[in-house]
Amino acid sequence: MTYLLQVDFTMDGPFGVEMSEGFQDLARSINDEESFIWKIWTENAVAKEAGGVYLFDSKESAEKYLAMHSARLTSFGVTTIRSKIFEVNEALSKINHGPIQK
């Protein structure tokens, strides 16, 4: 079973190329998280929102990462953090080319 973690929050930037350049070390460090499979980074400069969609192979790891990430965001001054954890229906996701990997 895999678990999808969806996180988004308000922030003033950076976005686009500046975000890509500024957050490379953070992106690399996420690869070392327990049970982590992948992340898709999200951003909307107009709405001043950013976040990501993560796939983990255990609910406990998704919850642990969410707690750590929320604390990190709060330490950066982020006050509006929205998150959800979902079980992934792998059979249906594979039909629609979902990037389900273990």
Question: Notable features of this structure?
Answer:
single chain, 102 residues, alpha+beta, Alpha-Beta Plaits, 4-stranded antiparallel β-sheet, 4 strands, 36% helix, globular
Give your account of this protein's structure:
By secondary structure, this protein is an alpha+beta fold. It has one domain (3-95): 2-Layer Sandwich (Alpha-Beta Plaits), CATH 3.30.70. It has helices at residues 16-22, 24-30, 59-75, 90-95; strands spanning 3-10, 36-44, 49-56, 81-87. The mean pLDDT is 94.
Write the layout of secondary structure elements.
Elements: E1 3-10, H1 16-22, H2 24-30, E2 36-44, E3 49-56, H3 59-75, E4 81-87, H4 90-95
Antiparallel strand pairs: 1-3, 1-4, 2-3
Which geometry do the CA atoms define?
globular
Task: From the alpha carbons, calculate the radius of gyration and give it in angstroms.
Answer: 14 Å
Main CATH class: Alpha Beta
How would you state the average pLDDT, rounded? 94
Count the beta strands.
4
Q: Helical element count?
A: 4
Which architecture does the CATH hierarchy give at level 2?
2-Layer Sandwich
Query: What does the largest sheet look like?
Result: 4 strands, antiparallel
SSE run: EHHEEHEH
Uncertain segments of ≥5 residues (pLDDT<50)? none
Q: Within the largest sheet, what's the order of strands?
A: 2-3-1-4
The name CATH uses for the topology is Alpha-Beta Plaits
Distance between the termini: 9 Å
Give the oligomeric state. Answer: single chain
Strand content: 25-35%
How many separate structural domains?
Answer: 1
What class do helices, strands and sheet pairing give? alpha+beta
Binned, the helix content reads 25-40%
